[in-house]
Design the sequence.
């Protein structure tokens, strides 16, 4: 029996399914979702603006706070952007250490996502299990960098801490631990009956849609796009890994259709890939300096004599993160632009959220591993308190105007 | 008669404690399986005591009389359910003549009444989350009704060939399923037991059948607008129902008393403490049933979708129960009696 009656269902801004404030308004018919509207903007923190008040070194630690989980990827992209402008060469050992910390972050981010996804579909045991085994990599990161998250490991032109022989032993022990657990964990995640019942054929994003909507990271790879910044535009030690290939569900012998299961499979396989990359880096870790040798003050003095623009791209666990900076003879960049993975993947929600049931909403939303705080990039306030809608053209014109101003000043 | 009223009051008071501790044991056991520490076993009791002191908020959009009345009806019906199930049993083991025999059909209706009270309270709360939860609960209720009815009818069928009253709980103590059944009957009994174990988490709104409360989807669903005393009543009613439904399964399938199994007798200072031993043994069985039916299942599974739940119960579980019924009907040994 088909009814014509639909009713609205608000999920958010604060809801147990989300870890951050974001609002979805659905039109529901019985248990089926017939329409969805997304409302961002509840957690804008003006990080790009704050960055214009800090010097080049302080910004690194500010950008670690863009996202609690990608706290290596954001400053990494920023450092790559600054090194791009200044033409700084990073010593080989530093490049390897950067790769190791980056992959450790990917390992813990994917384990975290798995737990969150399990919780969204009510599988709390798996949630407890993955978060329990995630402690090992966090302990390792703490020993390596001093912090579980917000590592403060990076600096422009290198890293701040070396990997000692003692650290290396911890990393080896950790890798052994995960290698032992991997087969069991992947079996639970990829073969469990109820998990499959909840994820297969749900939230489909076809390869064409993924390409058209510029999906990045595991979201794009789950749809079968062979897209990975580590392979396409290698930085750090990824140059030296010709065997590195973008993961896709084809690696477990399944033709990708772009459902939640495929995105999960990609993340599970990337856990294994991360272990492999860390192993490679530990085996081939070159000797030498870990940074360019010039202290923070000297670095700032060098950078404040520069002008130009630079771009840094890095594959965060959630997809491509991209930072753009404009330098203009000042102690800080005159403009910095952060493009977080969710910024790209958010649009992929639209096709995913059609033709699903209410029960699928949390897992489909979680399946792109959203980081709402990363993606909140603007806020528009009207002083008289009324509400307004800005059209795409208007917004586009405003953005061009803003960046033209900053670029004109430095490109004169 | 006065003794029976005394027993009834004692059962209700003991039922509150036992029901809440049953919930506590469930949480502790689940925590153990998930390698957590978990809350103290008395945590559900602390929750109730705290909720009793908290402010009760009634939403402006709610239908006030129904919203406040529903938890009371739910609590009353679940207390009645417990009395109906356990009064005849307790009287049986302490050797009193019970005024009620424990009618299985009435028990089915009381189980339904508690759920319907909660559903109407949820619809009356005016929250869309609660409405979705209530709709889902109705679907679950309707799809589990057939398996439960089949189980009860099959067991009554089995008893009907004896000289006992087929729908009375008391006959089940005298005429147990396993003792008087042949190979077919035992196999059928196992299938019926499996059916009840699968229905138990659905009745208790636990994973994988907790769609009506589904925290991450609809934020506790039916309970979302309840607070303070009303929420305490709902939680109490839930605890009573957990105790009663597990007790029902115990009585249907494992009504054996400790003394009949082991033939031991206990006494302290000349007084026989057998009734006490029996009650502890009975509670032990209840905890065991609840642990395998709710705790173990909820830690090893993810929450299903409501469409999948309907399929599971209407096809798979109903089929299991009907096969069980047919096997019991075919049981040759039973026919001879």
Sequence:
């Amino acid at each position: 029996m088909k009814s014509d009656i639909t009713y609205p269902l608000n999920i958010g801004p604060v809801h147990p399914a989300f870890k951050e404030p974001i609002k979805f308004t659905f039109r529901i018919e019985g248990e089926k979702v017939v329409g969805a509207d997304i409302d961002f903007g509840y957690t804008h923190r003006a990080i790009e603006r704050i960055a214009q008040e800090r010097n080049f070194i302080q910004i690194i630690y500010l950008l670690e706070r863009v996202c609690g989980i990608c706290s290596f990827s954001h400053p990494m992209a920023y450092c790559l952007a600054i090194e791009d402008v200044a033409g700084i060469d990073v010593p080989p050992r530093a490049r390897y250490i950067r790769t190791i910390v980056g992959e450790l972050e990917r390992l813990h981010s994917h384990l975290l996502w798995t737990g969150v996804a399990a919780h969204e579909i009510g599988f709390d045991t798996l949630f407890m299990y993955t978060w329990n085994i995630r402690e090992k990599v966090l302990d390792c990161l703490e020993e390596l960098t001093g912090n579980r998250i917000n590592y403060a490991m990076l600096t422009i032109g290198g890293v701040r801490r070396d990997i000692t022989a003692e650290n290396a032993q911890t990393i080896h022990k950790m890798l052994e631990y995960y290698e032992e657990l991997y087969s069991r964990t992947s079996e639970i995640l990829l073969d469990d009956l109820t998990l499959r019942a909840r994820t297969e054929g749900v939230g489909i994003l076809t390869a064409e849609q993924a390409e058209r909507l510029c999906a990045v990271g595991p979201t794009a790879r789950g749809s079968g796009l062979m897209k990975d910044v580590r392979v396409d535009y290698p930085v750090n030690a990824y140059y030296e890994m010709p065997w590195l290939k973008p993961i896709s569900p084809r690696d477990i012998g399944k033709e990708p259709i772009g459902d939640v299961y495929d995105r999960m499979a990609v993340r599970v396989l990337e856990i294994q890939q991360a272990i492999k990359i860390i192993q490679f880096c530990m085996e081939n870790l070159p000797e030498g300096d870990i940074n360019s040798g010039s202290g923070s003050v000297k670095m700032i003095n060098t950078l404040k004599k520069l002008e130009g623009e630079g771009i840094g791209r890095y594959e965060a666990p959630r997809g491509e993160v991209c930072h753009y900076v404009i330098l203009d003879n000042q102690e800080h960049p005159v403009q910095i632009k952060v493009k977080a993975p969710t910024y790209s993947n958010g649009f992929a929600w639209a096709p995913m959220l059609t033709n699903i049931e209410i029960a699928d909403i949390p897992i489909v939303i979680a399946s792109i591993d959203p980081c709402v705080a990363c993606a909140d990039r603007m806020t528009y306030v009207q002083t008289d308190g009324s509400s307004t809608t800005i059209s795409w053209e208007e917004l586009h014109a405003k953005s061009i105007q803003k960046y033209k101003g900053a670029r004109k000043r430095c490109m004169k | 008669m006065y003794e029976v009223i005394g027993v009834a009051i004692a059962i209700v008071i003991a039922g509150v404690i036992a029901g809440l501790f049953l919930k506590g044991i469930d949480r502790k056991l689940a925590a153990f399986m998930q390698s957590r520490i978990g809350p103290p076993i008395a945590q559900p009791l602390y929750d109730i005591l705290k909720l009793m002191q908290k402010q009760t908020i009634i939403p402006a959009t709610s239908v006030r009389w129904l919203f406040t009345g529903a938890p009371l009806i739910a609590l009353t019906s679940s207390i009645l359910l417990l009395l109906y199930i356990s009064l005849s049993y307790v009287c049986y083991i302490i050797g009193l003549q019970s005024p009620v025999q424990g009618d299985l059909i009435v028990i089915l209706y009381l189980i339904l009444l508690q759920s319907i009270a909660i559903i109407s309270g949820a619809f009356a709360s005016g929250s869309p989350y609660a409405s979705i939860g209530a709709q889902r609960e109705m679907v679950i209720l309707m799809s589990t009704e057939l398996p439960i009815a089949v189980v009860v009818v099959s067991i009554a069928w089995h008893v009907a060939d004896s000289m006992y009253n087929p729908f009375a709980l008391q006959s089940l103590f005298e005429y147990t399923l396993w003792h008087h059944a042949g190979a077919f009957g035992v196999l059928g009994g196992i299938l019926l037991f499996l059916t009840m174990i699968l229905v138990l988490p659905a009745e208790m709104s636990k994973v994988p059948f907790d769609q009506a409360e589904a925290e991450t989807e609809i934020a506790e669903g039916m309970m979302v607008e309840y607070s303070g005393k009303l929420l305490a009543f709902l939680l109490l009613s839930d605890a009573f129902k957990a105790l009663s439904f597990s007790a029902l399964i115990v009585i249907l399938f494992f009504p054996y008393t400790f003394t009949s199994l082991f033939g031991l007798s206990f006494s302290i200072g000349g007084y026989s403490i057998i009734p006490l031993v029996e009650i502890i043994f009975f509670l032990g069985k209840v905890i065991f049933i609840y642990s395998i039916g709710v705790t173990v299942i909820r830690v090893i599974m993810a929450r299903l979708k409501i469409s999948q739940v309907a399929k599971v119960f209407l096809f798979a579980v109903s089929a299991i129960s009907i096969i069980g019924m047919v096997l019991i009907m075919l049981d040759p040994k039973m026919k001879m009696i």
